[in-house]
UniProtKB/TrEMBL annotation, chains A, B:
Organism: Haloferula sargassicola
Gene3D superfamilies registered for this protein in UniProt: P-loop containing nucleotide triphosphate hydrolases (3.40.50.300)
SUPFAM superfamilies registered for this protein in UniProt: P-loop containing nucleoside triphosphate hydrolases (SSF52540)
Protein's name in the database: Polyphosphate:AMP/ADP phosphotransferase
Keyword Kinase applies: yes
Pfam family, one: PPK2
Alphabetized UniProt keyword annotations: Kinase, Transferase
Ranges for domain Polyphosphate kinase-2-related: 36-256
Amino acid sequence: MKLGDPRKAFLVPEGGKVKLTEKGADDLSIFPDGSKSDGEALFAEIALQIKAQQKVLYAQGKHRVLVIIQAMDTGGKDGCVKSVFASVDPQGITVKSFKKPTEEELAHDFLWRIHPHVPRSGGITVFNRSHYEDIIAVRVKKLYEDEVWKRRYRHVTDFEQMLAEEGTTILKLFLHISKAEQKRRLEARLRNPNKHWKFLPDDLADRERWAEFQHAYEDLISKTSTRHAPWYVIPADRKWFRNLAVGRLFADTLQDLDLEYPTVSWDPEEIRIND
Amino acid sequence: MKLGDPRKAFLVPEGGKVKLTEKGADDLSIFPDGSKSDGEALFAEIALQIKAQQKVLYAQGKHRVLVIIQAMDTGGKDGCVKSVFASVDPQGITVKSFKKPTEEELAHDFLWRIHPHVPRSGGITVFNRSHYEDIIAVRVKKLYEDEVWKRRYRHVTDFEQMLAEEGTTILKLFLHISKAEQKRRLEARLRNPNKHWKFLPDDLADRERWAEFQHAYEDLISKTSTRHAPWYVIPADRKWFRNLAVGRLFADTLQDLDLEYPTVSWDPEEIRIND
């Protein structure tokens, strides 16, 4: 079962212009002959590969890896984190969720609350939501004048370029679901009492502004996808395919780093351990 | 295959006096008929239980859980974290490793670097080393006058009591290995080039002071095991048994919390999701 390269298929190139309406949220064309069970079997292999790669990344302590995940509500941010990164040593991965900014956070520039959480050498950090909320929400909900979110495009690309040049590998994932799939997922939450806590009636207000959000994301992704920190638009209507695509993309990204166990400056042959 | 209760077997009661020389690092007596493969099978069940419990803990967002792990070098801190907590959603767990304090950290009280990392509601945090290093190392290596580490016993018990009273469940684990087992593990690291990075020739200096460290730990554990924040001395010469005992202990601790999915204030029947 051959899987195409998600980094080619789903990349938004620097200077490109993405149209979400033309991107299938259910586009499985890079896995043309694959069924769900094929996809899950392949994903299990990829998860083991990521687990092995992370061990070396951590030991080497050289690279820093930042994964930024954005999506509409129910887009699968939590599920993606759980699936793709669950096999990894919890010591080597940090997941940071950004909620609505607090008063203290709003009393600073919008990157102030982000910066302390970027990954350290040898570490992987996943942002579940990010500084991109402070563009999307500000724009669609008209929290400040338009100048604010417009200049933030520059602020985030400058910030990410600095991080990249200082040694951080950045992947930005937009989990792309259709409006019909969101409806199915919201209804499933309503049917399952163990998921009621995840359902916020206020989220329905965002759903009413679906087209505005999609348009804002199109503009955002087009203008902030750079070679230092590219965006990938992942078809995410099928959870198994989303996991497969993100897993492959992440494993391939690690593969391109020169991961190797560090060498030591002493000679193991010369060391004696006393009783 | 019956497993005894590690919370009974390995607890150091408040006011108790622990003698590590009388505690078998290879004591499997709570699992009398169990083999390694039995233990691993049982551990796999416990890991699934922890995974399920953590989901509710996170959804409920009420309790905070802090696990503090201390051990001599090669005692299995990293391995224990990886094994016991690997199945858990990485979003719900944070592992914080404390290294040798930086200049900035030393310019503050010894709890200054610790406090920001205590768990939030719904979260599990694991400290791989902790504020206890600032007692053990200070004492054995005579970094400051004796008064300093002596009064720190009070500082840590006061601090932990405050955390507990504010809603944090605290477990403190001493992974107890024998000096002979440490030798085997150090030699194994020397034989495996992929583990050389974990071997610091300086660690051998600590090994030379094994008895002093054991004595310092005995005193520390005896004086800082409280009902708010009890110490458990886990026989850790066998990795599979260490994982089994820590897993059981952790799952039982979660079991005692009133974990349940939160109820919501709205009526799922009344919500309509538009197309």
